Amino acid sequence: MRGYVELFNVGKTYDTPKGPSIIVENFDLNIDKGEFVALLGHSGCGKSTVLTMLAGLNSISDGGIVVAGKEINGPGPDRGVVFQGPCLLPWMTASENVALGVERVFPKASKADRRATVEYYLELVGLGQSMNKLPRELSLGMQQRVGLARAFALAPKMLLLDEPFGMLDSLTRMELQEVLTEILQADGKTALMVTHDVDEALFLADRVVMMTNGPRARVGKVLHMPFERPRRRAEVLAHESYYDLREEMIAFLEEQEQLKHRAA
Hints:
Layout: E1 5-16, E2 19-31, E3 36-40, H1 47-55, E4 62-67, E5 70-71, E6 79-82, H2 94-105, H3 111-124, H4 140-153, E7 158-162, H5 170-187, E8 190-195, H6 198-204, E9 207-211, E10 219-224, H7 233-238, H8 242-263
Parallel strand pairs: 3-8, 3-9, 6-7, 7-8
Antiparallel strand pairs: 1-2, 1-4, 4-5, 9-10
Helix pairs in contact: 2-3, 2-4, 3-4
């Protein structure tokens, strides 16, 4: 059965002085519309490579990727990307950073409509009182909220998140995970998130896709999360399957770590 997003036999090969290096090979994944998929694996296994190919920021060596029935051949506003760092223009306010993309994607919209869109998403991420501040006046967590607002404001078909909370302290991280679930619940956006955090994957995802070690990384195991939406952290933690799923994910990662040491 086809998905809203399809990755079929996707591969990435880099040329090196020692010959071709195959990072990802025969990567197959279908994502349903409105589904949140977490891509989990050890550092260096190729998670971000898959995400950047889906974003159109990295060329595809083999296979193909289809989003909403259209094969991608580069970056586009149909895919919003949130990176680990906020990547804000330091001389622009929070609202100006969000408006920059909105103006380019919706050039025919009225100035008032574009402003309303910017303000709506900044309010949604909790920055209604800080939209006129420069990045240096915002905490790292607040800057990442701007990054989330910027991505959602472009009305993309799907959201791509590359360890978006990896640089934050644990409390801010949990806070923004809650913000993300609330926005996605209201927006119904399809999402793929790269993470190496088991608990983050458990809380946010509908499915967790675990990758084997690189080189030649591929899908190793897929787990379906039984937690209802809207998500409540206390309810997720209290679910009868939570710790079994957590142990299964950790066991897979430990197995991959052992395989890596044997191959070294």
